[in-house]
Amino acid sequence: MSKLGNFLGSPKEIEIEGLGKIKVYPLKVKDMKIFKKDMSNEEQIEMSKEIIKRSLQDEKDITDEEIDSLPLQTFTEIMDAINDVNGFNENESAINKIKSRIKQ
What we know:
Layout: E1 12-16, E2 20-24, H1 41-55, H2 64-69, H3 72-85, H4 94-103
Antiparallel strand pairs: 1-2
């Protein structure tokens, strides 16, 4: 492996509502294909589901139905952890930050 292997990123372990811990992995360059410039609300929801699935790599059997059934608080905690592990600041959502980069 080249020196780039040193920069693959480390997962962050988070606890959700005191019920259990999960590891959130950083997204990879290959994951950028799920981001589009202009998306409908439905496409943004689908993209969020895909981001969760890719970020929670240890949870191979996550389904869309499970994500759809999450309380909004839990969904927000997971997305906040994904933003954090990917280095997105708190003032701008990960989706908006990536959209801005794509437009450049």
